[in-house]
Amino acid sequence: MLLLACAAWSAQAEETLSYRRNSLATMLVFHPEDEFGPEIYKAFDSLPIPDKYDDHTIAGTRIIDNSDIKGVRPRESGYYKATYGHQLTPSELRKNALYTEELLNNAGIAKKMVALWFGFSGSSVDDATFNTSLLQSRGQYNASDVDVALALQTTRGVASLSDAGEELLNNTFVLVNDITYVTAEQEAAAAKTAMNVIGGLLDAFTGGTGGRDLAKTAGQIADSFTGFKVKTHSYLYQLEWNDSVAAVFYQFHYTDTPDPAKVQAFLDDKTTYRLKYVAHEYEFDKKSVLKGKYSRTELVRTICARSMDKNIVALAKQYEDFKVKTPVYSVLTNERGKIEGYAAKIGMKEGISENSKFQVVQRIMDPETGKTRYKYIATVKPKKGQIWDNRYNAVLEQDEGATLPYTTFVKTAGGEILPGMLLIEGKYRKIEN
Hints:
Blueprint: H1 11-15, E1 22-30, H2 37-46, E2 53-55, E3 63-65, H3 90-106, H4 109-117, H5 133-139, H6 148-151, H7 155-169, E4 172-183, H8 184-206, H9 210-224, E5 228-239, H10 243-253, H11 260-268, E6 275-283, H12 296-318, E7 325-327, E8 330-333, E9 339-344, E10 358-365, E11 372-382, H13 394-397, E12 407-414, E13 422-425, E14 431-432
Parallel strand pairs: 1-2, 1-3, 1-4, 11-14
Antiparallel strand pairs: 4-5, 5-6, 7-13, 8-9, 9-12, 10-11, 10-13, 11-12
Helix pairs in contact: 2-12, 8-9
């Protein structure tokens, strides 16, 4: 295969390399009672799904309005909420996570995600049908590989459907973000209170007014601070798709020609399709400072985007099925043809640092079984000073690495690396040596 030099990089290179991404839908817990609640709502609603995931958003399901949730727990309404000076306890986090799981399943979100996977459409029960076009395109299958009627007649065909389930449907996630915030005013009020207490104690000991003067000065400094920081609790849910769920769907619900009985059975089913809670992550950076000049709306959007990205990175490290797979887009050579590195469109947004380590794997479709397997090829790490800062608004912030077109990796072990092979951070249980 031709080695691509650094100068030969182009946007078309990315488009020619397709790979199986995990699918993701994101949701926001909206707190309308908060001053910045509407800005957070607008910011979240304007942000796209991270480009390393396929967008599996269900129309009309992105916002969970906390004010509409009544009588769910002794607290009487909505979520246990992180506020300034109050961190959620492990018990509150667990209750939030399981309550959200119940909320999503009662709303039939899992079934809607399955319907999206299988192109469910029609004007009525009488003419509604399913198809496998999305499975075919996202999984790079031939049409015959995911033709349900044909597949169910052969062992290899069933294996192909099983592979699609394991590689695609089972790697479908919902990320629910509960975002609250800390403002300059909250920090200023806390600083004033603390300094007033300290000042009062100082005056009590000295009999003077130096403590009160100290408190006044500290209050003025706190008032001048213009920080806005978000507290982001992210709860991750995975679509449950296994052999028993697949058997019900293919036998009793799926039909590519009008069949009102099967369609109605699918619509009425309230137990087969479920989402399960798998992980939680919390992000709050007390030192986050933005250097650029932002409007209030853009400030909130930038901080929320970066906070959610950090949680996605942490969840991918915590929960293996959520790991990002990123293709090698080009092999970088110098003018003498010597390999100097490997380019991949991944960077600080995905948590890349000089300490990151990635396995390079080759995805192989077994012609006998129709199943996908991953073969280990090499190990790479980012090249110092060549990590792309692809975080939201990094260019506006003029951050180091923001103008790079990709991150450059260097090989530390293994064999020949070619464009199209996949990078996976850390260990991945499905890899064969």
